Amino acid sequence: MRKLFLIPVLMLSTLAHAHDTITVDETLKTSGWFNESTEIKVQEIGKGLYVLFGAGGNIAASVGERGVLLVDDQFQKFIPKIKSTIADLGGRRIDFAINTHWHFDHADGNQALGPEGTWLVAQNNSRAMMAESKIINAVSMQIEQPAYPEIAKPVITFEDRMRFYFNGERVDLLHFGPAHTTGDAAIVFRGRNAVHLGDVFNNSGYPFIDSDNGGHLDGMIRFCKQVLAEIDEDTTVIPGHGPVTDYQGLVDYIDMLETVRKRLVTLISSGASLASVIAAKPTADFDQTFGDPASFVDRAYTSLVLAGY
User: Fold this and answer.
1) What is the 8-class DSSP label of residue 111?
2) Any idea of the CA torsion for 55, 80, 50, 249, to the nearest 10 degrees?
3) How far apart are CA 210 and CA 216, in angstroms?
4) 68, 93 in Cβ contact below 8 A?
5) What is the pLDDT of residues 241-264, one digit of tens each?
6) Which pLDDT tens digit goes with each residue over 46-67?
């Protein structure tokens, strides 16, 4: 099932050589991530709560009497299809859009929603990252994400916790320090007993750690464990990419991260270079499930070395 949801950013190795820099628009054009025929698939999680699978990160949509709240908004060019899908679900305008983090495949839709009056929400660090042009090191290439215009930046931010009461339930926004990026947010829908973790939890393959912009393997593990403490065994777990899963799916993901981390630290402590670490195949027993480990090992190794291991 995972292989149906591979992240295009991590599939671009055939499209450019290492150290090449491409724009977001070039990424979209060459990756096949978005085209006019791309459709949105909808999965109902609970009454009035849906997951939208389209072009980019998974969207959670709360649709009800108070209005529409989105978690992530994919791409600006895809917003008309997202709005059409929301209308089919009984919603009207999009009142709030929460960004789980600042990467373009989750937040580029801000550039369409902000000018329309949608209230944009994110963790403080994500807004700060959107305010500057950034390079996302996807290992096979560098993707340049330009600074967002003021109208597309979040107008509501939080540090560690924030709370909505919306469409009949409490919605908690949680931040547990640097993980996938420095500004990740997990969104817990308490009434529907569901959580969206953004790209801290990737259920389409190995995760991408944006270590050049403050992401860290240890933070990924800590963040996921903190989320586990906030939910229960009946919670529906929505990843940033890939199929919806459950509590045990997140537990298994953490186990993979911890196992690989232990192996990486052992290799680094022995003086192994990145090339030697890759040759040692520290993810071998997980590769059948998670796919190509190249980007993950590179970024995880880098994050640990930068932290002084």
Assistant:
1) H
2) 10
3) 7
4) yes
5) 999 999 999 999 999 999 999 999
6) 999 999 999 899 999 999 999 9
